[in-house]
Inverse folding.
C-alpha cells in the first residue's frame, strides 16, 4: 500500500491515457472494458484502432526535447555580454561570463546525454510486435501501434507491450524487477481488485509494459500506452532528475553577481 504517485507530466500512476473513473487496478475488468470502449470478443476494428492511434499517439517512449529556443537565447545573450565586457576592458567580468557559458554548454550536454542514454535503455526493453485481436481475429501488430482498448494475448517468453488490465490469467507470472526491484516472478490474478492507493508492486491484476512473462498465459485490455505507462512514468522521473541544477545564491533583493552564476554552474557540473 502506498500513496498514488503523480509524475511531472501530471499523470496519475495506474490511470489510463484517458482517465477512467478509478485507476485500472481498482476496477473490475468489465468496468475497465466498458469505460475504455473495448470489445472483449472481437477487439477493435482497424478503423477504430487507427483513430485511437491518432488520438493517443504511438506506443513508445518519447524522444528528447530537441531544440530549445530559450536555452539558445540565453546562451547568445551571455556571449554578447562577454563580448561587451572584453570590449570595455572588463576582463574579470568577461572571464566570469565566459566560464558561465562554457559550464552551461558542458553541463547541458551531459544532462541531455545521460537522459537520452537512459531513455534508449528503456526503449530497448520493448518487443517489436504484439499479438492483438483486431476485426475479430488474432493479428500481429507493431508494438508502437498498440492502442488503449486493444485486446492483447500474452504468453510465456513475451514482453508485455503496454500496461494491461488482465481479463484472464492461467498460471501467469511476470518478471517486474525493472519496475519494482522484486527479484522473483510475480503471480497475477485477473479477478482481484485492489485499493486505489495500492503501489505498482502489489497490483496483481495488471501486466506492466516492458515486463517479461516467465510462466503461463493471459489476455487483457490495454489501458495505458507510451509515456502513460508505469515504465513511461519512470522514464519521465529519470529525465527530470537528469536536469537538476544548483540554485544561484541571490541577495535579499533577488539580484546576484556574475560569480554566483559561475559558482552554481560549477557545482552542478560537479554533480556529474
Amino acid at each position: 500500500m502506498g500513496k498514488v504517485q503523480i509524475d511531472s507530466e501530471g499523470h496519475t500512476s495506474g490511470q489510463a491515457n484517458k482517465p477512467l473513473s478509478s485507476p485500472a487496478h481498482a476496477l473490475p475488468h468489465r468496468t475497465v472494458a466498458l469505460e475504455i470502449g473495448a470489445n472483449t470478443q472481437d477487439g477493435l476494428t482497424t478503423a477504430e484502432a487507427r483513430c485511437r492511434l491518432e488520438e493517443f499517439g504511438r506506443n513508445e517512449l518519447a524522444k528528447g526535447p530537441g531544440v530549445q529556443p530559450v536555452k539558445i537565447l540565453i546562451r547568445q545573450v551571455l556571449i554578447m555580454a562577454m563580448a561587451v565586457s572584453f570590449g570595455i576592458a572588463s576582463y574579470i567580468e568577461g572571464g566570469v561570463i565566459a566560464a558561465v557559458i562554457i559550464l552551461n554548454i558542458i553541463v547541458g550536454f551531459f544532462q541531455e546525454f545521460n537522459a537520452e542514454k537512459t531513455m534508449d535503455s528503456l526503449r530497448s526493453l520493448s518487443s517489436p510486435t504484439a499479438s492483438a485481436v483486431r476485426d475479430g481475429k488474432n493479428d500481429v501488430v507493431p508494438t508502437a501501434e498498440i492502442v488503449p482498448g486493444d485486446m492483447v494475448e500474452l504468453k510465456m517468453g513475451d514482453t508485455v507491450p503496454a500496461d494491461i488490465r488482465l481479463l484472464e490469467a492461467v498460471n501467469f507470472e511476470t518478471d517486474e524487477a525493472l519496475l519494482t526491484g522484486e527479484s522473483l516472478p510475480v503471480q497475477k490474478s485477473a479477478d482481484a481488485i485492489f485499493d486505489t492507493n495500492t503501489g505498482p508492486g502489489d497490483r496483481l491484476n495488471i501486466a506492466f509494459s516492458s515486463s517479461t512473462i516467465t510462466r503461463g498465459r493471459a489476455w487483457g485490455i490495454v489501458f495505458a500506452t507510451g509515456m502513460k505507462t508505469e515504465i513511461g512514468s519512470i522514464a519521465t522521473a529519470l529525465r527530470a532528475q537528469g536536469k537538476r541544477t544548483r540554485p544561484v545564491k541571490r541577495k535579499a533583493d533577488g539580484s546576484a553577481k556574475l560569480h554566483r552564476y559561475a559558482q552554481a554552474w560549477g557545482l552542478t557540473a560537479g554533480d556529474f
Notes: The first helix runs from residue 29 to 36.
